[in-house]
């Protein structure tokens, strides 16, 4: 680095990192579409496995949608840091004069926008296919917006811990599924509550709190875990 | 204070110290276990409703209590190893994880065995059982993550990060599972209803809990000693010790 170039501010570094990842994600739209397709496929499996009875499907639709969203996020977090780890850009990030936690957060944010965020936006489509009553739809979208934020951040911790391990995929699910239990419970309960005409606000507030808490704490864990992976 | 901590960080010192500790802890643990088991299984009165089948709590409850406490021991050791890079803390954490996992499994299995005659089902999705199951997964995650890393120093630090994340999460998991249960299930099973436990049953239970704490400490210490022996099998202090014995 030439000494005459002043250091970027942390904010600028974050933005640059974010834009870089958004660009590289946008460069391969198929990769962005894959989790959505996965979501679609697995949702299709449930009526095939459980029978087409609309009433029963509607009753378990919140659970199905949330479990599938969790699985989709599990699938994508497996490779969250993989390419950056392999081509050495993670090592450069770790050497940069900025907190690794902040730089990594830019990457996770870009990742969330192209997976969880999109998934939340298209979820009403699948919900209607499963016959989820309409009054549940806004809550479903809101709960998935907050919920996928938690899932992505927790998934990033797992991904950072397992990125240096060959065949870390199965291990990743063992690590992060237990941690995702509260998200699943709050999410499905919020939707179920909205469907029966109750007030889902408290559950959504809990989810939002969980999302903010993860946003504050997990970057530290992700940074520490990435340093471990780089050292090993 | 600091000298003690530094001494504890030194493997030769720890090996000798833990040797003395084990020599005391082993007879204490065995006698506590025998006394507790005798008192609980033979002397304590049968329950007026469950008869003798309730006696499994003398294994079940201590295992569950210590399994929970064990996670915090592990996470604390993880935090110490992450902050101060003390090697012995790594070894403590790694030694505690499988012991905790086994205790959780014991609690789950004894619970199922008790549940069959009492509730009429091996498995019920009760809040506590589910929380225990998730705790079991958390333990397994730490064990599996440690095994997956080739570099054991990195493995210990990765496990430390994981167990700290788990520690923050455990209260949330417990609360959420509690709410999930109270929302989804009618209270058909009264587990904590009425009876405050009678003292004739409580004292042997407390004794067994104490015995299990000792057992946990003993197993972790033995695990750590085995770990140390293996890690330092080439080092001079160990050869000296073996030669001198």
Describe the structure.
The complex is a heterodimer of chains A (232) and B (245). Chain A has one domain (10-231). In chain A, 81% of the residues lie in helices and 0% in strands. Chain A has ten helices and no strands. Chain B is mainly α. Chain B has one domain. Chain B has helices at residues 2-8, 11-43, 57-84, 87-119, 127-148, 152-184, 199-231, 236-244. In chain B, helix 2 runs antiparallel to helix 7, helix 3 packs across helix 6 (152-184) and helix 3 crosses helix 7. In chain B, 34% of the residues are buried. Chains A and B meet through helix 8, helix 9 and helix 10 of A and helix 5 and helix 6 of B.
The overall pLDDT average of chain B reads 85
Work out the helix count of chain B.
Answer: 8
**Portion in strands of chain B:** under 5%
**Which percent bin holds the helix content of chain A?**
over 70%
Biggest chain-to-chain interface with counts: A-B, 28 and 32 residues
Low-confidence stretches of chain B: none
| Total strands of chain B | 0
Count of DSSP strands of chain A: 0
In terms of DSSP E residues, the strand content of chain A is under 5%
Question: What's the helix-strand series of chain A?
Answer: HHHHHHHHHH
Show the helix and strand layout:
The complex is a heterodimer of chains A (232) and B (245).
Chain A: H1 10-26, H2 29-50, H3 54-77, H4 82-86, H5 89-95, H6 100-114, H7 116-129, H8 137-162, H9 169-195, H10 201-231
Chain B: H1 2-8, H2 11-43, H3 57-84, H4 87-119, H5 127-148, H6 152-184, H7 199-231, H8 236-244
What are its keywords?
heterodimer; A: 232 residues; mainly alpha; 81% helix; elongated; B: 245 residues
Short description:
The complex is a heterodimer of chains A (232) and B (245). With 232 residues, chain A is mainly alpha-helical.
């Amino acid at each position: 680095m030439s000494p005459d170039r002043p250091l970027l501010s942390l904010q600028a570094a974050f933005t640059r990192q974010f834009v870089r990842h958004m660009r590289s994600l946008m460069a391969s739209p198929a990769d962005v579409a894959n989790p959505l397709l996965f979501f679609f496929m697995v949702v299709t499996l449930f009526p095939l496995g459980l029978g087409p009875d609309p009433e029963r499907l509607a009753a378990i639709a919140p659970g199905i949608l949330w479990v599938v969203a969790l699985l989709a996020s599990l699938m994508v977090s497996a490779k969250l840091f993989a390419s950056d780890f392999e081509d050495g850009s993670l090592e450069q990030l770790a050497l940069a004069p900025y907190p690794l936690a902040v730089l990594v957060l830019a990457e996770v944010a870009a990742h969330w926008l192209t997976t969880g965020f999109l998934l939340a936006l298209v979820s009403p489509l699948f919900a209607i296919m499963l016959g989820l009553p309409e009054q549940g739809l806004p809550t479903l979208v809101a709960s998935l917006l907050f919920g996928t934020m938690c899932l992505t951040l927790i998934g990033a911790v797992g991904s950072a811990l397992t990125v240096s391990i060959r065949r870390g995929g199965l291990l990743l699910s063992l690590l992060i599924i237990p941690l995702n239990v509260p998200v699943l419970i709050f999410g499905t309960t919020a939707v179920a509550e909205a469907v029966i005409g109750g007030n889902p606000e408290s559950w959504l507030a809990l989810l939002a709190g969980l999302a903010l808490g993860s946003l504050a704490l997990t970057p530290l864990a992700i940074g520490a875990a990435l340093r471990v992976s780089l050292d090993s | 204070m600091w000298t003690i901590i530094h001494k504890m960080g030194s493997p030769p010192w720890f090996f000798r110290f833990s040797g003395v500790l084990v020599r005391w802890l082993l007879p204490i643990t065995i006698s506590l276990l025998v006394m507790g088991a005798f008192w609980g299984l033979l002397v304590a009165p049968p329950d007026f409703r469950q008869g003798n089948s309730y006696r499994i709590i003398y294994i079940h409850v201590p295992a569950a209590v210590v399994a929970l406490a064990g996670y915090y021991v592990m996470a604390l050791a993880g935090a110490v190893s992450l902050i101060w890079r003390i090697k012995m803390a790594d070894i403590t954490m790694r030694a505690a994880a499988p012991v905790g996992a086994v205790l959780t499994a014991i609690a789950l299995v004894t619970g199922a065995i008790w549940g069959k005659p009492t509730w009429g089902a091996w498995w019920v999705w009760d809040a506590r059982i589910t929380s225990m199951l998730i705790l079991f997964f958390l333990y397994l995650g730490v064990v599996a993550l440690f095994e997956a890393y080739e570099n054991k120093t990195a493995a210990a630090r990765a496990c430390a990060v994981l167990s700290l994340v788990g520690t923050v999460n455990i209260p949330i998991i417990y609360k959420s599972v509690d709410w999930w249960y109270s929302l989804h299930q009618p209270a058909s099973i009264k587990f904590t209803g009425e009876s405050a436990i009678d003292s004739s049953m409580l004292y042997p239970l407390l004794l067994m809990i104490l015995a299990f704490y000792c057992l946990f400490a003993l197993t972790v210490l033995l695990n750590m000693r085995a770990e140390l022996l293996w890690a330092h099998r080439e080092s001079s202090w160990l050869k000296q010790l073996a030669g001198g014995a």
